[in-house]
């Protein structure tokens, strides 16, 4: 019975077998373009050599912004939040650390992920040693590891060189949860020789890389214990590396003196300055510090507090002690990160643009002119202080003051090449840059232009946008960035109301009649008639010139207005007549004469649930033997019915609706005779439809949770007969559209969680499924417009605009090139333009050859003996070779053993046990052990005693493993005897053993095994004695250390009192 039912269902499919329609191989859903700032952005990085700004997100995406309109999106396999992001400058590499402590190496030239290194530990700080293949990783245990990027493979390997917490801090008694490394700063002018480590406890260590020992220890508990606070961030505030600014969790910002290159001091340096910026009064943790060195008195520090809208900039000069000059920038939302883009000093002043970029908690990017910030700080105390720097929101170029509320994407594969690739490449350079810090050539302009626009059917891709202020924008999207070509905004007496301009809610374009129709929230309908194409008769290329004088008169022929009731929701033109069908959110259906701009009739359709009209489709249908023009209407409550298009009367007796209605989104007549796509460019589409229109016309309606396909004849008659249906229990559908391929018609569904499904029609079988990373749709509130608009073309391209921040374009058909210049405009890094350093390693902040006299004045006091900064450059090759020798040597072997055993604990523990041989243990060889200890590097301070304690723990672990091996050895002897019996049961010795007599070989083997076991037991006893002795020594040492610390604390308190 079940098989018979399946056969009936298979034979029931109308229009032949599904093999005639789309197949899985015919579709390939994918994202082909991302333009703008991705949602969920929260971290910046900048490469000053190639002028590349990177923005990472919370879902594993990284967006790159380069010069000349170049943009590129990198998508990681792991959808994890980025913790650290840093360029390997001038090497075409970007390192990203996510919350899973994975270090990703991105190849910018190939735009791919080269390697993922899994770090064993919680990464709390990260720093690249620029111009070398090495970088530092600090973890929550206070240890710093050195890792290297292999030149050819870009793989990450961990070096033997480490900086253990006990070696850098040297205070094991005070160890607590505050041991994590919060900042690693290579010292300016000595990047390859010294690094500054800042711990969460507030402890600061200046570490000598070659000597493998601390040069300075300061900022510990004894110096900052008066307040319960933790260090959170740090940055250098001096080009010589003699001053460092540290931010704390209680809002403090302290500046410490550090011995610069050539100085050696293990004494604790004093705090030299405290910046009172108001964060401490509110206990706002400092999350980010940036410093910019400038000539004269303009050096300054930028400060961001956690969950604070206030970003403060402070001048650091000789007047800081007596009069602190600061500027508070009130950002529109709490700040997450900031990045300074400072132009190269060699650039011409005309094109030099310095900018401060601020990343808000929402992921939006704000920009400030840094030159105006510097000017304000310097002149703020003058008689005529300058105005405050203005905030600029980095957003899509579609509109300066309004957002997109509705869109229409038109594709024309048979377009004529009006402009060459060279012309579009020049347009990219002349167009307004996405980031305000990017320069534009003199010919460039921010004004929109229609000078190069030949017409809607003469351009490969046209994007029409309707905005919240009633403006219509037309954009040439032949290339992967929007080029403005037309802006329509008319103000008439009918269009003006007490509420001002209304947002556009519906658009329709018909290429055959060159008609563009728009409808807004107030019921105003505008009909724009364009002149015949092409608009430019002269074969000229004038990028962005002359449009202001010419206006739109050479394109727009006439404009007409019609006022209707309610907010316009859908517009459809009849191909057989000069009529428009217009629906509203209040259930009104109006038929309009296009030439006369008059309303022929208006019908109101009542509904108990929701009266809004979502779609109108003209169609010819046979009713009772007569051919009749009908208007199929779909409502928001998923009801479908048909009207007589001539009179507006309902033909059938009932509306067709599901038992459980959901909010309807889309309606389409399949295999009909009229063009109901609404995309206008239908020449190619009609030829495809002729090949596949062999089925009976049907009506598809899609809601948030279900899809139904009805017979058109039954819909007209008012009879409910479902041909196909599909229900969904996952996240709701937010967009549905059909597309036409060479082998059939398909359905594209976009769900609110970013899932995209491609289904065949009319069977609704699933062909392909994918997901758009970072896409999340939220249903708009009542009487409001959605933040995300989705437009579909007839051949399956989707354009998704998320507010003013990002534009995403996806495609369905394989081997379809949507845009021109895709490769060149996504190449943010060009290896040919790599900067030659001439073998120099210098710091980005050490831009001045000499430290200015009185730099930081009396506040940052220096020694009486004046000293110039040693800026002798180092040969890159020689430095890398020297570092290779240093980092390839285990400077603390005891720490490397512990770390390696911890990293390989789950992987090679069994192998180690199998390879371990008790015969290799020699307990009494004290001279050999003494010789090995002499070969190891000397440990500083308390390390020699502490290593014994760690060694004792290691011996205890080793002792347990030896006991397991003893049991293994006994078991193996028995097992070998059993195997020997099976193989040689016929021998004389085995016969003797069978009858209870022992053979000579067995007696010898047993004696040897017994002697072996006795020897092993002696060794284990010796190890136990050694372990007990070392444990007692470690306990005694720990007790002595505690007593010594208590004595020091008591003496310190006594001296204070």
From TrEMBL:
KW Protein transport (keyword) present: no
Keywords per UniProt: Exocytosis
Biological process (GO), any one: pollen sperm cell differentiation
GO molecular function: GTPase activator activity; myosin II binding; syntaxin binding
One GO term describing the cellular component: plasma membrane
SMART domains in the record: WD40
Organism domain of life: Eukaryota
InterPro entries, sorted: Quino_amine_DH_bsu, WD40/YVTN_repeat-like_dom_sf, WD40_repeat_dom_sf, WD40_rpt
Keyword Transmembrane attached: no
Family (UniProt): Belongs to the WD repeat L(2)GL family.
Full protein name: Lethal giant larvae (Lgl)-like C-terminal domain-containing protein
